[in-house]
Amino acid sequence: METTAVSFLDALGSTVFRFAAICFIALNATAAVAVVMTRSRRIVDFWIPKLLVADGILIGTGLGVPLVAGLAKFGVKALSAMTGGGAALPD
Q: CB under 8 Å to 85, separation ≥6 — which residues?
């Protein structure tokens, strides 16, 4: 049970980080292309606040979910060690 939970948490953290990084790059590249193609100051004024919110959500998700998954992994390993099911130190 411990190895299944730990491997799931490892996969979850890395998958969410990768997805958030790809979305961050795609979103900002699309915004940059739109600004360069249209050269419209109006687009910049309208979309920058929304872009910053989306960037903040992606950065928070991309860093927060792997952090929480890592902490949960340590918790699973500690609980397993306390019940006699495995080693106390993480891999």
A: 1, 2
| Maximum C-alpha span of the chain | 64
**Per-residue pLDDT reduced to its tens digit, 25-66:** 999 999 999 989 998 888 888 999 999 999 999 999 999 999
Cβ–Cβ under 8 Å, residues 58 and 26: no
Comparing C-alpha atoms, which of 26, 6, 9 is closest to residue 68?
Answer: 9
First to last CA, the chain: 16
Q: Find where tokens 């609980």 sit.
A: 79
| Structure token pair of residue 81 | 């060690």
- Cα 75–chain centre separation: 20
